[in-house]
Design a protein that fits this description.
- The protein is an all-alpha fold and 87 residues long.
- The protein has one helix and no strands.
């Protein structure tokens, strides 16, 4: 059953005429929102990959510094022992 408004306009045609553009605009808005959310996730993933690489480099550098510090400590002990023997 079709409803006809007082001025003779078909109510179903009005709803279809308004509903389709609204649905299309809503779909476009959801697609655009999803796209930007995906881009944000991708940017976060790239930043996290850089952070992991930086953390790995920091650990490697820290291990190198510890090895150098251990070597320096042994040299200082040798110098201290030499000073005790001399003095």
């Amino acid at each position: 059953m079709t409803h006809v408004l007082a001025d003779g306009t078909n109510e179903t045609a009005v709803w279809i005429g308004l509903g389709i553009p609204v649905a299309v605009c809503l779909a476009i808005a959801v697609i655009v929102w999803s796209y930007f959310r995906l881009q944000a996730h991708r940017a976060d993933a790239v930043a996290m990959a850089h952070y992991r690489k930086l953390a790995e480099e920091a650990v490697a550098n820290q291990q190198e510094v510890r090895a150098q510090l251990a070597e320096l400590t042994s040299h200082v002990r040798a110098v201290e022992q030499l000073m005790r023997d001399v003095g």
